[in-house]
Specification:
The protein is of the alpha/beta class. Helices cover 46% and strands 13% of the residues. The chain is elongated, with a radius of gyration of 24 Å.
Amino acid sequence: MRDKTKYTTEELCYIWIDGFSELEYKHKKNLIELISGKKDIKKVIESGKDYIISEIGEEKFRTISMSATPQYLDYLLAELKRKEVYCITQASEEYPDVLLQTEIPPLVLYAKGESDMLKENLFGIVGSRKSLPLSVKIAENYTEKLIGYGFVPVTGIAEGIDKAVLETALRINGKAISVVAGGFDNIYPASHTELFNKLSEKGLCISEHRPEIKALPYLFPIRNRIISGLARGVLIVSGAKKSGTLYTAEYAEEYGKDLFCIPYSVGIASGAGCNDLIKRGAILTDDPKDIADFYGITDTEEKAELTKDELIVTECLKDGEKHIEAIAKETGKTVYEISPILSMLEIKGYVVKSGVNVYTLLK
């Protein structure tokens, strides 16, 4: 594998142009096409002065012209190296082909971690920041199973579902990709900086913004196009009707990606968006095996064996969530006898608390 901090001339062109945050995407792209492959960049810029000014204005032209020096590029590269960030540009061999096929692929992916993951079988798992405990447990369950099926999860780094996905992946094998909305110096929420650091060591964190760029609100929905662009399919675990999560679903539909959604009962606001997507044609899934079956993946996983008492309790829960007292009554046991059985079923991933002493079967 080549040194991640050693770049070709074309890659350096992308890194240099992308350093001008005040330029629009289309202007950056035009400038890259103008100067790519040229040795004397400053001469090329000066010779195209009238055209460039007509595109971006005289003030921005002066800034670019003054920065067309080896010293400025060396400064950019030194700052990235100091922060242990490397670049994957559209001219890099590591840049994902599936992302290049989207409408506005990032010119540069700023990365920390293992870039080899970008070539693996990626699957998006996203959901609302304000999700029910049941939804978080579902996200953990799907993440664990999809990793077992050979997928690498792709998500953001927000509270709720994103966090559940990343923590589950870190617990299993560390293989997950987090697409960050702002730059790496401005992880949002700040409380997830430690999570970001752990994933940078074992998995991969990427952003289309230089480290110093702040995570402004409008960057989050734009970021979601990268999650959908990278993924083979996308799972929406939760989302209200106006949830930002639905941007990821819209991009998935636009890119022709397989879209899966968890169904919700009537009246659950954080799942209303999922139900709407299912009505529009998203694939309903209530078991990770649905996704494996869709892609023709054989489930060779050995499930944790259940005791006789555990089987009795799971059978009791097959017709819906129940309070612990109802479970005790139906199984002919006391609450004190049922409580440790339910705790063990939680550990094994078969049930989850969906309320105060209320339990729901997951498998």
